Amino acid sequence: MIPQDRKHLMNISFTDGMSRAAELTRAGKLEEATALIQSLLRGTPAPAAPQPPDVARDNASADVIEGSFTRLDETTAHTPPRAARQPSNTLRETLATVAARGLPHRGPTAPVAPDLPKGAKFLTLTHRSAHGSRAYRLYIPARNLTRHPDGPMPLVVMLHGCTQSPEDFAIGTGMNALAEKFGCLIAWPAQPQGANAQKCWNWFRPEDQGRDRGEPALIAGIVRDILRDHPADPARVYVAGLSAGGAAAAIMGAAYPDLFAAVGVHSGLPVGGAQDMVTAFAAMRSGAAGKAHAAAVPTIVFHGAADATVHPTNGAAVIAQAVQAHPGVERTRVSGVGNGGRTYQQTSHATGDGRSIAEHWEIDGAGHAWSGGQPGGSFTDPKGPDASREMLRFFLQHRR
Asked: Is 379:103 a contact under the CB 8 Å cutoff?
């Protein structure tokens, strides 16, 4: 156990170090800033003062974070040649790069087209509005007219994590295959590198945390386009995401309770958990409570207990936001084992009449990856319980 005075000194060191990293980033000294950030995330106290640029370049460690994505862990030993380095030049790009720290692996770098059953469609579409534009994929299942007549279908919006693409995320989660069984439309918005160097949704920026502005307005616009142009049920629209996408999904539920009937957050963070790069790193490293918000949409959360990228207490904070408007909920906790062998604890929150408000799945030994996902996609953990199936089950209990 760490003595209180030492804890205090460590907290000061981390805060001061992150502030110094932000100053270095603004000055364009990305190598020094990212080396400092990595040492802080590993728990090493910040140095007394930043090194001069020439000294930092000469003494840069072998695992400095570069502009191109690398897995950052204790065994990284290769430094790309200087000519190949592509340092980013904005705060959000630095955040996005380090946000990928510790992810288990990367999937294919080129988009892979998922296999489609006969009669299904995987459309490539673009939403355009005064807020900008975003490309997205839309999966339309091969509809069984006996089970699913021409009435509207539920719509699930899936927000990928950093470095992922809609195609990669679709393969990893297996959600399109479940759409065939449950008769759902699945939308896959794409975050371009022009918005974030590592294709992360910018959940930590104030301009991307509210209604009718920034990225939330673009995602809501995609939903409205689909409701207008396709057989989607406006009372059964849901949103889910992984990591940065999970944080963005929580924001969408808080900003648009009139649009979404339920939310799924996998390895994400609570609404308002950060306001800039420094507080984002702090939230990822140690957890954040987030901010209370007026709307509380039914929410299901999955989080690995061994997640070293986004602290597991963030999952509990998301649940706390979901149940805040229901002080009388009844709490039930059960344990189980996923098909792949991982144990988990599932905590359910329901009103007195049995209406489900929230579910929290804590997965023993799991890291920063989609539980029960397919090995063909990136950032998946096939050993865990099936997050995709459980999210759909939870979603379809709720109508707006």
From this structure: yes
∠ CA 98-220-163, rounded to 5°: 25
Handedness of CA 262, 268, 270, 273 (dihedral sign): negative
Task: State pLDDT tens for residues 160-180.
Answer: 999 999 999 999 999 999 999
In sign, the C-alpha dihedral spanning 132, 281, 241, 138 is positive
Alpha carbon distance 324, 329 (integer Å): 10
**CA-to-CA distance for 147 and 149, rounded, in angstroms?**
6
pTM of the complete model beyond 0.85: no
Per-residue pLDDT of 288-305, as tens digits, reads: 999 888 778 999 999 999
CA end-to-end span of the chain: 47
Determine the Cα–Cα distance for residues 265 and 318; give it in Å rounded to an integer. 8
Sign of the CA dihedral running 275, 265, 251, 202: positive
Residues 6+ apart with CB under 8 A from 122: 113, 114, 116, 137, 138, 139, 140, 176
Number of residues in the chain = 400
Q: How large is the C-alpha radius of gyration of the chain?
A: 21
The percentage of residues in the chain with a pLDDT greater than 70, rounded to a whole number, is 70
Alpha carbons 85 and 235: distance in angstroms, whole number:
49
Q: Token pair of 82, please?
A: 């200087």
> Angle at which helices 91-99 and 4-26 pack, to 10 degrees?
130
